Structures are given as C-alpha cells and as structure tokens.
C-alpha cells in the first residue's frame, strides 16, 4: 500500500531582517556600567581644547570571517568534549594533577620603582642602563596586591609584554598564563626572554604532552605559559587548570591583545566561553586585559565574556605615537591591477632603497594575486624575487616561522599579510605599513596594524590606507557615512572621510586621553599636504595632425 501522505517541499527559513545601521548586541545581558578605580594620564602634562567625548554610535561589531588552515577554509566545529571539563563521555577518565609541598601565593606590599629596576636587571629582563616605565611599575604593584582585575591601555611598542613577567620576579615561584590570539605570538613570546631567568612555554597542539602539562601544574619556578583559548578548553589542559598546586601558584591570567575578544567572539566561540575559566580558577588570581586599543565597549565585552570584574583598575595611556604618520588615499586604478601599490616598488628601486614594508589585505585571494604582481615587478627591474614574501594562516607553520625570521633579518623587504601579522607582532625595522582596501576593517584593527611600524627608538613610520570608492561616501550605490554605516565600522568611515585632522578622529573613537596639540598635527595627510603618495605617469607619443594628414 502506497503512502498517501502528500510530500511537501521544506520551506526555507525566512531571512531575519536587520537594520544595518544598528550594531548587533551580545546575547547575554549587558553588565552594569563599570567603575574603574583609577584612570591614569599619559606621561606628559595634558591640556587640550578638543572634545574627547565618546561618540554616541558605538564601534561596529564584525561579521564572521573565514578561517583558513593549511590553505583550506575551516569552519568552527562543536568540540567532542565539554570545554574546561575534566571528564567527558566517551573519553578515558582522568584526574587533575596532584602535588604536595606547594605554597599559595600571598598578596604582597607595594615595591618601589628602584627595587623593580634592580630585580629586572638582575634577572636578565632588562639590560644595564634600561629602566622600567611608570605604568609598568604601577601595574605590577596592582597585580601583586591580588585585589583588583586590571585593564592596561598603552601604545604599541610600549613594553606591555613585561606586565606578565615583572610580578614573577617578586613572587619567585609563580605561573603566568598569557592568552594570545594567534600562534605566531606564541612562537615569538617563547623566544622573547630566552636570555633571562624566566621559563617560557608555548602550549599548542604540537606541544602539549602529558609530561609538559604535569611540569606546568607542578610549578615551583618562574614560568610564563602562552596559549590560545581553544587549547585552554581541552581535557588535557583541564588537568592543569583544576590542579590545586597550579591554582595556588597562579600569578594571573593575562589576555594579550584583549580587543580581539570583542571582534571575534562570534566566530571564535572559545573567547565567548572564557568566563568559564574564571569559575574554575576563582578570583584570587587577577585577570589582566592588555591592549593598545581598548575603548569602553570593548571592555564591556570583556566583562560579559571573560569575567572581568566591574570594579577593574584602569590604566589608560592611549595609543598616541608621535613617530607614526598617516596618509589616506583614494584608489585610482582597478583593485585587481595593483597599480595603486606602485609607490612601494618604483621602477628605479634597488634592493637597498626598498623600505621594509608590510601590506595588509583581508582577502587571501587578493593577497596571493598581489604576491605574484610584486614577484613579476621585481623580476622586470632585475631585483631578487626573494625580496617579497607572504604570510597568512593558510600557510604551514614551517613557512610562517621562516618568513617571519627572514623579514626580521631584512632578507625580505616587503611582507604581504592578513591578521596573522596583526596585533602584537614585533618587527624592528618597519617604516611603511599599507592597508589595501578597508571594507570590513575597524579603526581598532587599523591602529593595531599601523602600530607594526616604528617600533624602535629613532625610527619613524608611515601608515597608508588605500580606500576603494565604495568606502569614500562618493559611491551612489552604497553612500556610506558615519550616520549610515550599514555593516561598516563608523569609526573607520569617520577616519577615511573626514576633512579635518585624522589624528583627532582616532583620539575620539579610541578614547585617548587629551594632550597638548597644535591646530595642525603635521602627522596626517589632511594637516600636512607634504604627506602624499608619488604618482607614476606613462608618456604616450601622439601625432597632433588630423588623422587624414598622417602618412
């Protein structure tokens, strides 16, 4: 007998209609307004007539972005285990590592700046003649008190990586857990203090044996652990996090480049579950959130998703760096031609004359095509093609390490990359940073990328944004503006469309403390007409005679 029930096609779900001008809000209840204990001014005396009130429209949340692993798109998958849980169905039963004869870290009194400098030099963290900055001393004393959570906003290249090292010098037997957004920061951090008495370990999928985990849980030394949020959630690391000896010796949990949480919690669920870590380790160990760009809305996300306490202590030095300049230039050629990048590699270039340059694009297909364009251009002017290299998450770890080492050593001069060479990466000699098209980019990420330049004393750097027509406000199809940003970041639109000082726009959106400034800053292309890109012209011979008279 045949089934007489009529078969009806499944109707597709009706698309949800969103107002593109409204920024999406987190699904969780927003926290009560934070009341930070102290807001620290920058080192200079401040006096500014400009208004630095936070704009009414918040910074836009970002849409999900593609994740690449070994060149292939990788979509987030539900893990086969419950994050941060010791035992899971279908997995062997395990217990937290247990040790005896360990001491719980006590709260400590304030240490003078002189004593901090002596400790840092004696332990090999600083060289003789170097000195700690005031904010580093203040933050370290707050961490030692174990009383408050802490948010630190300081310029790129200001030595924020010392904040998880210095407390260990005073505590002697302590562990610092540093949560990083990219594996490249872990490899770099593992080598950063190789000449000191600090042990550094990068915990990742290729280095997480039971012996290594057991050594971390045992403690008994000054130990910095670098890891990503996804690794923290694994059952193996749960044996460490639930260990009484580990919790007793935990100096603090540090979220490095903390702005990443706000921009990626929707497509990296590990960041959205970070507050579970706080329920396991408790609040005795402070949570320290560190970034050069961390406006209030980003800090609110840290309260929701990471468990940052509302009464956190705030040190805000802003992200102003006088050694950095900015040019915003409208693209004159089709994006696929890459002719707007000709100023990076003029026809009369020599290997020595090419500035050490980073060029960013968030489209990996565009980035690959750009690589071959530079490759052909180098060959046409008889320069080694090894002067160009490319770095993104779709490439192997071996290539990423070699590429980074070659660029730091100066073997390659132009590095093309995505977020993989974003926040936190330290390249000593970069003098030019270029953003190729800016759709989907936030002002926070741009400032982080621009901050890869000029990271050594005496070096200045230039940041260039090449803006496509659809982002200028002149495109009739999009007509984007700060009042109608759609899915774009209104702060970024304000920066690229303003006719005033670009530096002042950044100050407002990133909530930089006010400072003494001139009417014209001299560091942006709006205030300083001398900041402009060179243009290459092609001469074409033309016969002025009428066509009929030509031979």
From TrEMBL:
Residues 23-36 have a biased composition (Low complexity). GO terms for biological process: double-strand break repair via homologous recombination. Residues 1-40 are annotated as: Disordered. Residues 323-496 form the Helicase C-terminal domain. GO terms for cellular component: chromosome; cytoplasm. Residues 141-312 form the Helicase ATP-binding domain. Its EC number is 5.6.2.4. Keywords: ATP-binding, Nucleotide-binding. It is an enzyme of class 5 (isomerase). One of its GO terms (molecular function) is 3'-5' DNA helicase activity. It catalyses: Couples ATP hydrolysis with the unwinding of duplex DNA by translocating in the 3'-5' direction. Belongs to the helicase family. RecQ subfamily. This is DNA 3'-5' helicase. It comes from Laccaria bicolor (strain S238N-H82 / ATCC MYA-4686).
